[in-house]
Every structure is written in structure tokens, then in C-alpha cells.
TrEMBL record:
Organism: Paraburkholderia pallida
Entries under SMART domains matching the protein: PHB
Region spans: Disordered: 283-302
Keywords of this entry: Hydrolase, Membrane, Protease, Transmembrane, Transmembrane helix
PANTHER family xref list: MODULATOR OF FTSH PROTEASE HFLC
Role noted for this protein: HflC and HflK could regulate a protease.
Major location (coarse): membrane
Gene Ontology biological-process entries: proteolysis
Official protein name in the record: Protein HflC
Pfam families the UniProt entry points to: Band_7 (PF01145)
Family per record: Belongs to the band 7/mec-2 family. HflC subfamily.
Domain Band: 20-184
GO cellular component, one term: membrane
Length: 302
């Protein structure tokens, strides 16, 4: 009976030792096999592998896929014009050299997160300190690329290859938001006022140009009207001269009738001197003064 118990115990121990000595690495990971004696760690790729059972050797699995590091809280970064911004970055990276990472962190995920957070904070601080507030808001992609290049160099000794940095949030701290919004509102109002002033100046310019063209058109029309009138007056004078040459008496009579028509309107009461030369055609059809009646002959004496 004691032999059976001893055999079972020995079998269990052998199974446990064998299970701790054999491990499988899937294609998404690699394993760093380290020894307790301080021997150099080795790298095991995907597949079935054998090692010494702990504590003689241990296998640390490292994910070689692209991973994302997202800080739980937003960090404050200061721009070149001394304005603070709250920024939430997301760092995407992959483990390019697992042995370097293991040597730096001993395979501890928290140590990796702490180191990566510190390096990314330094890279982003340098990137934001080179630009002003307006550029920080307008050129986020350029700032992220600059920080990525800096972080790539800084993280290389850890065996980390930084793929990308993205910003999920860029905002003002609560104590600065109201001041910044008021300043932005004032700037927009000033820009609107400038545009309105520019529009008013353009409108006045167009109005002045239209008035100048109007005056030119009126002057040209007046000139043409005067020319036409002058031509008409010349023709009228020629016709009048011709008519006068044919029948001077009739011409004078016609002119007097025209003058009467222009001078007297229906319902007018005018007191005039009937002996005036102006009314000669009212006194006589030919405009001549009437002949005084002959004095009666003196009585002859007988």
C-alpha cells in the first residue's frame, strides 16, 4: 500500500515538473526564457518549447502585436505663449526587441506602462512648447508626428517601436476656458467688424463709381440733346427765314399770334395799353395803325 502511494506521489510530481518544463508560444507572442543564475535570457518563438522548471528557468510571454497605451487622465501641456492645454494622447506601439524590453522592465507590465507614460509626456511637452495656442489647435497632426518621432528615439532602448500618436482630446483647463472663449469671441467680433468695414468701403467705392458713370451719361446725353436742339433751332431758323422771305407780313402775323398764345391763358385778366405795338394785329389785320378819320369840312360862308 505504501508503495502505491509513493508511486502516485512520484507520478504527480513528475507530471507537475513536466508541465512546468514544457510551454507553448502562440503566433501572437514570443517568450523570453530567463535563468535564476544570471545567465543570458533567450528568445523562444511560436511553437512548443522545453525549459527547466521554476525556479531554475522562467518563461515570460510578450505580445508582439501593435498595442495602444492610453493614459487614464488628461495631462497638462504648456504652449510657447504660456497657455495650458489638457491633452489625452493615445500611443500605439509594438515590441520590436523583446530581450531589450525584458532587460529594462523584467517583464513587468506596470513598469512598461510607467516608463512609456514618462517618455510620452516628455515628448509631448517638447512638441507643444514649440508652438503657440493657435497652431496647437490647428496643427494637431503635425504636433503628434513631431512627438511620435521624439518618442520613437527615446523608446528605442526599451525595444519599443512607436507606430503612432493620436489625440483624443485637446481642451482648455476649466479655469482658463472662460477667459479663452471671451478672447476668441472678441477676436471673431473684431474680424467681423473688419469685414463689415471692408464691405462698406467697397460699397461706397461702387456707389461712387456708379455716380461718376451716371454723371458722365447725363453729361453726354445733355450734350447730345443740346446738339439736337441746336440743329433743330438752326433748321427752324432756316424755315422761318424762308417763310419770312416769301411773305414778311404773314410771318410777322404768325409770330404775333404765337406770342399772344404764350402770353394769354384762359381765364387771365390783363390790363394793357391797347396802343402798344405788341397789340398791333389786334387793331388791324395787317398790323398797321388805323387811319385817323378825316376832319369834317368847314362850312363855307356865302
Amino acid at each position: 500500500m505504501n508503495k502505491i502511494i509513493a508511486f502516485v506521489v512520484a507520478f504527480v510530481v513528475v507530471v507537475l515538473v513536466a508541465s512546468s518544463a514544457v510551454f507553448v508560444v502562440d503566433p501572437r507572442h514570443v517568450a523570453v526564457v530567463s535563468s535564476s543564475g544570471g545567465a543570458k535570457a533567450t528568445l523562444a518563438g511560436p511553437g512548443l518549447h522545453v525549459k527547466l522548471p521554476p525556479p531554475f528557468q522562467t518563461a515570460t510571454f510578450i505580445d508582439t502585436r501593435i498595442q495602444a497605451f492610453d493614459a487614464p487622465d488628461a495631462d497638462r501641456y504648456t504652449t510657447s505663449d504660456k497657455t495650458e492645454l489638457l491633452v489625452n494622447p493615445v500611443v500605439r506601439y509594438r515590441i520590436a526587441d523583446p530581450l531589450k524590453l525584458f532587460a529594462a522592465t523584467k517583464g513587468d507590465p506596470q513598469t512598461l506602462a510607467d516608463r512609456l507614460a514618462s517618455l510620452s509626456r516628455d515628448a509631448l511637452s517638447g512638441a507643444f512648447s514649440k508652438v503657440g495656442l493657435s497652431d496647437a489647435l490647428a496643427q494637431q497632426e503635425a504636433i503628434a508626428n513631431n512627438a511620435r518621432d521624439t518618442l520613437k528615439t527615446a523608446a528605442a532602448p526599451l525595444g519599443i517601436d512607436v507606430v503612432d500618436i493620436e489625440f483624443t482630446r485637446i481642451d482648455y483647463p476649466a479655469e482658463l476656458a472662460e477667459v479663452v472663449y471671451k478672447r476668441m469671441s472678441a477676436a471673431r467680433e473684431q474680424a467681423a467688424a473688419d469685414e463689415r468695414a471692408k464691405g462698406a468701403a467697397e460699397a461706397q467705392k461702387i456707389k461712387d463709381e456708379a455716380e461718376r458713370k451716371q454723371q458722365g451719361v447725363i453729361a453726354d446725353a445733355y450734350s447730345q440733346a443740346q446738339a439736337i436742339k441746336g440743329d433743330g433751332d438752326g433748321k427752324a431758323a432756316a424755315i422761318a427765314a424762308q417763310a419770312y422771305g416769301r411773305d414778311p407780313d404773314f410771318y410777322r402775323f404768325y409770330q404775333s399770334m404765337q406770342a399772344y398764345r404764350e402770353s394769354f391763358k384762359p381765364g387771365d385778366v390783363v390790363v394793357v395799353d391797347s396802343s402798344s405795338d405788341f397789340f398791333r394785329f389786334m387793331r388791324s389785320p395787317n398790323g398797321e395803325a388805323p387811319t385817323a378819320p378825316a376832319a369834317p369840312a368847314a362850312a363855307r360862308k356865302h
